[in-house]
Amino acid sequence: MEGEPVSDVGRGGVSKGGVRPWRMVVIAIAWGSCFPLLDWGLDGVSTLWFVTWRAIVAGLVLWALGAAVNWTPGAPSPQMRLGTWALIGVLALMNVTVSFAAMAASSTGIATGMATVLANSQALLVVLPAWALFGERPRTAEIAAVVFGVGGLLLIAVPSGGGRGYGLALLAAVGVTAGALLARRLADVDVLKLGYRQFLVGGAALAVLAAVIDGPPTVGMSAHSWVALFVLAVGGTALPYLLWFVELRRASITAVTSWTLLVPVVGLALGVVVVGERLALAELLGAATVVTALAIVAVAGRITTRPQHIRGDG
Q1: Are 96 and 204 in contact (CB under 8 A)?
Q2: For the chain, which residues make up each domain, given as ranges?
Q3: 11 contacts 216 by C-beta, under 8 angstroms
Q4: In the chain, N or C: fewer CB atoms in 10 Å?
């Protein structure tokens, strides 16, 4: 078991508590702003190096927060087992390396509003894996919502020929979904330490990928790219992911991820209002279908879970 008591932020284990709406609203606003910030910050900047710095800055912020809040100077750090480090490594690769790279790359291929809808479809993707892995059996309405939501995703992608941007946005959603499932498996690891480790390990993998594909890091970033980077790293990454991991330990995965239905709404609104995008009829219908499906998942009734305290290796 790793980690010192830090209220319900750092204590491991899965509780029976419900989702805290205010936290999910903060997460939705933060994540909904990610694509507009990427659109703003990636002006003439290497996509892979930009998300590399995003991950590293977020990791350093959480490391500093943990050091200031709940780590005793001079106290020995509990050793984690190899299995726990392996899970953290997979979490970092899926939740950071794959998700961040795919998210940023997709933002250059499709409208930011549509990218937000697709990249935040994890509420649809997580239902069946949560049932298989954690016994969180979905109700009939939730299964119907998954089918309905997939139809909405196809309605968005097919009229435009699918394309690289749509596939990458969905890949980002797959990465976040896998991250949510892995985070539950790591529920006994201090959440701040889990956060900074996944970002730094994932950022290191992104740096290798960026160096191979784009060469040395760009040093001539504009002022607005730096501003976008730090706002994205702190407000759109470190803070919401910390709250996200905490909520995944309080309630069922489906209950938590269903709140991400607010993220596409925020992203679409920002895409239209801030970026000035115009949506085609098929995109509007597809987005409405996805949001409706997510709403069905949210209000169909909480699934009956078999709460289990999964002992970590930390």
Answers
A1: no
A2: 21-69+81-303
A3: no
A4: N
How far, rounded to the nearest angstrom, does the alpha carbon of residue 272 sit from its chain's CA centroid?
22
Please give the torsion angle defined by the CA atoms of residues 163, 168, 174 and 176, in that order, rounded to the nearest 10 degrees. Answer: -150
Neighbouring residues of 291: CB distance < 8 A, sequence distance ≥ 6? 117, 261, 264, 265
Convert 28-62 to b/e letters by CB count within 10 Å (16 or more is b).
bbbbbbbbbbbbbbbeebbbbbbbbbbbbbbbbbb
Reference 269, options 148, 122, 125, 111; nearest CA is: 111
Q: Express each pLDDT in 16-49 by its tens digit.
A: 556 777 888 899 889 888 877 877 887 778 888 9
Q: pLDDT, tens digit, for every residue of 216-261?
A: 886 677 888 889 999 999 999 999 999 999 988 887 787 788 777 7
- Contact at 8 Å (CB) between 291 and 156? no
- The model carries a pTM of 0.77
Residue corresponding to tokens 């330990």: 249
User: Which stretches within the chain are classed as H helix?
Assistant: 7-10, 21-32, 34-41, 47-69, 82-92, 99-107, 112-119, 122-125, 127-134, 140-157, 164-185, 191-214, 223-233, 239-248, 253-257, 262-273, 281-299
